[in-house]
Amino acid sequence: MADHLDLHTVGDLLHHYPRRYAERGELTRLSDLPLDEHVTVVAQVADARVHTFNGGRGRRLEVTITDGSGRLQLVFFGKGVHKPRAELQPGTRAMFAGKVSVFNRKRQLAHPEFKALGAESGAEAVEAFAHQLLPLYPACKQMESWQIQQAVDTVLGPAGHEEAALAGLVDPLPDSLREGRGLATLPEALRKIHRPATKTDIAMARDRLKWDEAFVLQVALARRRRAEAQLPAAPRKPVPDGLLTAFDARLPFTLTDGQRRVSEEIFADLATDHPMHRLLQGEVGSGKTMVALRAMLGVVDAGGQAAMLAPTEVLAQQHHRSITEMMGELAEGGMLGGAEQGTKVVLLTGSMGAAARRQALLDLVTGEAGIVIGTHALIEDKVQFHDLGLVVVDEQHRFGVEQRDALRSKGKQPPHLLVMTATPIPRTVAMTVFGDLETSVLDQLPSGRSPIASHVVPAKDKPHFLTRAWERVREEVAAGHQGYVVCPRIGDDIGDEGETPKGAAGPSPEDEAEKRPPLAVVEVAEQLTKGPLSGLRVEVLHGRMQPEAKDDVMRRFAAGEVDVLVATTVIEVGVNVPNATAMVIMDADRFGVSQLHQLRGRVGRGSAAGLCLLVTDMPEASPARARLGAVAATLDGFELSRIDLEQRREGDVLGQAQSGVRSSLRVLAVIDDEEVIAAAREEATAIVADDPELAGYPELRTALDALLDKEREEYLDKG
């Protein structure tokens, strides 16, 4: 039990809650049994027969069970037939558990575990028996649901006397909070979740237990926010008529209301004497880079330096190029022709030549360079800053906590931190996963951004749709525009590790049926050049190319010298070519929802409308097709991130390295329980403000220690 279900103590067992409840009168339908899955069913024995084979030496017991919706065969062999033969007489009602398989085109359970459900006698007994709620626990092959139930029963003791067994429990909720919110006591909640008399009992127990999970987690985050607020930091206030003023004056457009509002929030944080910790989330193309650049210029004005950390070299080079272009002569501080209030903007990546790298390091240590843009190379020991005041992290989920920590330690005092993400995060997830960061949201697109039309192209069902897709790409090119073709893999002869689609699901049954490797950039580019896109200028871009080659292709694509770029997801984030209007995503079902949304954001960045075609071989009724349909139906990233979350297990979201918080949410659903999480955050913040060390809340401290074992505590501290 310990190994398979991670249950080591009596407490673990009591907090292993039933997944659902079967009513004896309301049976799990046999007609709906999924193949190859472990199931628990409640049914009645219709028929039981012993067959002999091998000249009478072998024995096989076949039992047919029914629940009114269908019939199912159970088989037992050899010595295993004696017990079921004696106990499973026709008319017997029992619980059965096992793996559903197929034999002779009929579904069956071979050697299932079973437990008879007692003999009914008298109408009242039958009524009571039929409506008793049977807890069905998350189980595994080594430990069936009712074996867990037996263990729980042993711990709880006889019915009506559970209080004695539950008396010593640590209750993390302060009495005042529990009473004020009308929540059950912990012993009562545990009794009702394991032994409910009614459905109301279950609801009451779940309400209380959700609060435990939300509250303890929010207290951990509130303590962390408080600790961060105690750290010293140098306030960074832009000087009037400095670099920021000069930059704003040369902007050819006005900032959106959203950009103005978020900038004000950031500048207010930068002016305080403790480090800013802010998450800036915005739709693809909502102008996050502009907001981050203004924050960096403000810090340079105040005499500090700003570093922007990007997840890939392609992106670091792109940011460097677009920032120096936006700044013009302001990015040439100290150089001939540079503006008087200007500063130097340097790039630092792992693949730079030794001389350029030496110069960049020198500019940083002397303070000559006010802004540095780089990859993980920025974190190396050799890199020293004159006075690091602000760290901007692009696409936060790609950076481990340790890397952020290493960069942060390069300041004389902890620098301010701004984290940017283009993956919209529902508010509840932001409160749970990034609960230590204040959140700013950019939800309006700058004027001039064009709508993007998205369509699913079912290549297998309707091959002529794919033909039409390539015609559409040719039409866009003929109109003077450019296009992307995105593939999940690089190619057969090139190591592909590291460029699998992020958030993509594992092999689905449909994939298994396909048994086809995902389409690859190298092969697709060759087929397109010889076939539907012949005569167009087609180039490839992927993560295994030499940095100079990548940069050269991107530069030529941006300059309009390439018509169609066949690429992997290296173009997913930050690549900005306003003239690119069409995108065809091959094997789109192999990418996650958020990732498809990110990729789509690369088109429609100029005045012409964007077109995104999601090509798939998946059959119409498959979940993969439904997912693609959802992406095609809306451009709202927040709506898509909800869909994404609902389709993935929540633990995947919370258990990622981005949080360092145990993904042990058992009853709390991050998407559905928004009100509980928001209320728990309020209560937690108030309690931590009043008693930071939780001296008056020993039980809460104990619960916190259980949530954050030593390693996780450090992890949260570093975040």
Description of the structure:
The protein is built from 27 helices and 21 strands. Helix content is 39%, strand content 18%. By secondary structure, it is an alpha/beta fold. Helix 21 links the parallel strand 20 and strand 21. The relative contact order is 0.09.
Give the topology, please.
Layout lengths: L1 H4 L4 H5 L5 E4 L14 E16 L4 E9 L4 E7 L4 H6 L5 E11 L2 E5 L2 E4 L6 H9 L1 E4 L8 H12 L5 H5 L8 H6 L5 H9 L4 H32 L12 H8 L6 H14 L6 E6 L5 H14 L3 E5 L3 H15 L16 E5 L5 H13 L2 E6 L13 E7 L6 H8 L7 E6 L5 H7 L4 E5 L9 E7 L4 H16 L3 E5 L22 H6 L6 H10 L7 E4 L5 H12 L5 E4 L12 E6 L7 H8 L9 E7 L6 H11 L3 H11 L2 H5 L19 H17 L7 H10 L2 H9 L1
Parallel strand pairs: 4-6, 9-14, 9-15, 10-12, 10-13, 11-12, 13-14, 16-21, 17-19, 17-20, 18-19, 20-21
Antiparallel strand pairs: 1-8, 2-3, 2-5, 3-4, 5-6, 5-7
Helix pairs in contact: 8-9, 9-25, 9-26, 10-12, 11-12, 16-25
Question: Unreliable runs, pLDDT <50, ≥5 residues?
Answer: 493-514, 649-663, 713-719
Share of helical residues: 25-40%
Number of strands: 21
> Helix count, per DSSP?
27
C-alpha Rg (nearest Å):
31 Å
Q: Which structural class fits the helix and strand makeup?
A: alpha/beta
Strand content: 15-25%
Query: Main sheet, how many strands, which sense, barrel?
Result: 7 strands, parallel
- If strands are numbered along the chain, what order do they take across the biggest sheet? 11-12-10-13-14-9-15
Give the integer mean of the pLDDT values: 80
Distance between the termini: 33 Å
Estimate the global geometry from the Cα principal axes: globular
